């Protein structure tokens, strides 16, 4: 398990623990927890390279996080929770796109290396 995966797992576990601890005692607590978990999801996407590899998706996630934070400050907990969940979904999409782009680039590099090796083998014959 690489460090990035460990960080993601730790963030998700902390977010889940936070949600379990606050329970459903009030509307504020779940909304606050949702915003915190979504912020972590955005940070994870950024650390996965989403800023460069999925800029539209991460921008949408950031914008929704800002709106969720504003709604939380305005004590509109339902809107804050909804926007936080949307931001989390956008962040996960951005992270997936970034990971896919990295995998595609690695695959293309390997294919190019294989092509060069084949050319060298053919020349040696």
TrEMBL record:
It comes from the Bacteria. Pfam families: DUF4398 (PF14346). Transmembrane segments: none annotated. Gene3D superfamilies: 1.20.1270.390. Residues 84-120 form a coiled coil. Residues 1-25 form the signal peptide. The keyword S-adenosyl-L-methionine does not apply. Residues 34-109 form the DUF4398 domain. Keywords: Coiled coil, Signal. This is DUF4398 domain-containing protein.
């Amino acid at each position: 398990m690489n460090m990035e995966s460990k960080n993601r797992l730790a963030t998700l576990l902390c977010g889940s623990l936070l949600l379990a601890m606050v329970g459903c005692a009030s509307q504020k607590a779940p909304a606050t927890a949702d915003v915190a978990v979504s912020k972590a999801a955005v940070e994870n996407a950024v650390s996965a390279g989403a800023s460069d590899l999925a800029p539209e998706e991460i921008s949408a996630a950031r914008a929704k996080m800002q709106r969720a934070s504003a709604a939380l400050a305005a004590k509109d907990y339902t809107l804050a929770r909804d926007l936080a969940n949307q931001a989390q979904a956008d962040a996960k999409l951005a992270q997936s796109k970034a990971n896919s782009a990295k995998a595609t680039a690695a695959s293309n590099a390997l294919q190019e290396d294989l092509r060069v090796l084949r050319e060298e083998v053919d020349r040696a014959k």
